[in-house]
């Protein structure tokens, strides 16, 4: 049974002319490059998502740290002014805000680590393997 490509019977490789082989290789290479670019796009989108989440978490940590500084200043004012239990409540709030800021900063760092390196590693490795395979096939074909 003969192979069929795009509705047209395909001759065995050893019976195809050089022009047919070059055309077939060109079509396959174009499809391969398109597929690799699609993979690279998907990989970069995933890394961009992690970078965005990480940056947002760092931003949240910065805002909470700012509120923490404000609460700490309010605590110092209350301590100096009243020396009553109110200052203890303000101090507790300050500690909690800084603790939450620390947790958000750690989560943000984790997300940013997932986004690096920014290159699409899987696509690059696949492309290198494809180039090596084509080189090997060309060498084998030239020996025949």
Care to give the gist of this entry?
This is Phage holin family protein. InterPro entries: Phage_holin_3_6 (IPR009937). This protein is mainly alpha-helical.
Description:
Pfam families: Phage_holin_3_6. The structure is a single chain. This protein has helices at 18-81, 86-114, 121-143; strands at 3-5, 8-10. The protein is mainly alpha-helical and 144 residues long. The two termini are 25 Å apart.
Q: How would the blueprint of this fold be written?
A:
Layout: E1 3-5, E2 8-10, H1 18-81, H2 86-114, H3 121-143
Antiparallel strand pairs: 1-2
Helix pairs in contact: 1-2, 1-3
Instruction: Report how far apart the termini are.
Output: 25 Å
How many individual helices?
3
Strand order within the widest sheet? 1-2
Number of strands: 2
Helix content: over 70%
The value of Rg in angstroms is 31 Å
Could you spell the SSE succession in H and E letters? EEHHH
Shape: rod-shaped
Strand content: under 5%
Structural class by SSE content: mainly alpha
User: Which regions contain 5 or more consecutive residues with pLDDT less than 50?
Assistant: none
Mean pLDDT: 79
How many strands, which pairing sense, and closed or not: the largest β-sheet?
Answer: 2 strands, antiparallel
């Amino acid at each position: 049974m003969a192979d069929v490509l795009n509705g047209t019977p395909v001759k065995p490789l050893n019976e195809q002319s050089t022009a047919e082989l070059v055309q077939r290789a060109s079509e396959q290479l174009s499809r391969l490059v398109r597929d690799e670019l699609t993979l690279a796009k998907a990989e970069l989108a995933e890394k961009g998502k992690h970078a965005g989440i990480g940056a947002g978490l760092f931003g949240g940590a910065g805002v909470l740290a700012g509120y923490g500084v404000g609460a700490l200043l309010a605590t110092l004012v209350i301590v100096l002014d009243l020396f009553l239990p109110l200052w203890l409540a303000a101090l507790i709030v300050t500690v909690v805000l800084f603790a939450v800021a620390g947790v958000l900063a750690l989560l943000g760092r984790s997300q940013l680590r997932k986004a690096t390196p920014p290159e699409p590693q899987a696509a690059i490795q696949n492309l290198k393997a494809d180039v090596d395979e084509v080189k090997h096939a060309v060498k084998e074909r030239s020996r025949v």
